[in-house]
């Protein structure tokens, strides 16, 4: 098992290194001059040259990359081309908001998908099971931003139960923090929960057909009892794959939801930086998002080994 973990860790590190190169080169080839954007169209050639030197963009690309990635490894993402403020502390603050949103969204998805998907599988020949499957299909077709707008209209505008947006840090007011997080988390979680429900149903259905569950039921256990005692661990293996993919989707989908609910997360920071053509900030945000997705895939690979003992001796 240890060699497998070491091999996966090596793959992760190589993937992060390659991703950093791709992100850097992609930003480098984009049209436009950051110095021109920062100074405006009336800047003199001398001032432009000095600003390019201050930004460090007058040097060879290879030198720029190693300076940038060397700083990133020490937590220094550079300074914004627009505000001239350090990017690293802003990323840390914004990433915390996004983590709260993604974590809450995943919790909502899991709490809905696990019981509903299991119920739909166990009662797949009943009308109730078909109804749950039909509702999940409808949920899959609804994009997160539309769900956000509908939830705001119902619970914030009409019922006035919850705020329509804004962010209160948990260390300032825990009650307002939870109230402000409910609608964004539901917007992300309900849509992803519908997708996850389909996969849970499929995995549980496959498990219900296994011989060991038939044996358990023949000994007097009810379908739910046999499933919970003997089947859920095996059903969890394919579901973990989807959970990893959905976490990555939630991380990216948070970009839109944060804008709808005016949350100061990475998504809002990314859109603001793109609008201001603050390429160095965009570069740092994209790298953080890519590394986050790679880490999720790494954790999913490790969970395979924990859930399925047959993989522990595999090469």
TrEMBL record:
<feature type="transmembrane region" description="Helical">
    <location>
        <begin position="134"/>
        <end position="157"/>
    </location>
</feature>
<dbReference type="InterPro" id="IPR045621">
    <property type="entry name" value="BPD_transp_1_N"/>
</dbReference>
<dbReference type="GO" id="GO:0005886">
    <property type="term" value="C:plasma membrane"/>
</dbReference>
<feature type="transmembrane region" description="Helical">
    <location>
        <begin position="99"/>
        <end position="122"/>
    </location>
</feature>
<feature type="domain" description="ABC transmembrane type-1">
    <location>
        <begin position="95"/>
        <end position="304"/>
    </location>
</feature>
<feature type="transmembrane region" description="Helical">
    <location>
        <begin position="282"/>
        <end position="307"/>
    </location>
</feature>
<dbReference type="GO" id="GO:0071916">
    <property type="term" value="F:dipeptide transmembrane transporter activity"/>
</dbReference>
<dbReference type="InterPro" id="IPR035906">
    <property type="entry name" value="MetI-like_sf"/>
</dbReference>
<dbReference type="InterPro" id="IPR000515">
    <property type="entry name" value="MetI-like"/>
</dbReference>
<dbReference type="Pfam" id="PF19300">
    <property type="entry name" value="BPD_transp_1_N"/>
</dbReference>
<comment type="similarity">
    <text>Belongs to the binding-protein-dependent transport system permease family.</text>
</comment>
<keyword id="KW-1003">Cell membrane</keyword>
<feature type="transmembrane region" description="Helical">
    <location>
        <begin position="235"/>
        <end position="262"/>
    </location>
</feature>
<dbReference type="Pfam" id="PF00528">
    <property type="entry name" value="BPD_transp_1"/>
</dbReference>
<keyword id="KW-1133">Transmembrane helix</keyword>
<keyword id="KW-0812">Transmembrane</keyword>
<feature type="transmembrane region" description="Helical">
    <location>
        <begin position="12"/>
        <end position="30"/>
    </location>
</feature>
<keyword id="KW-0813">Transport</keyword>
<protein>
    <submittedName>
        <fullName>Peptide/nickel transport system permease protein</fullName>
    </submittedName>
</protein>
<feature type="transmembrane region" description="Helical">
    <location>
        <begin position="177"/>
        <end position="196"/>
    </location>
</feature>
<keyword id="KW-0472">Membrane</keyword>
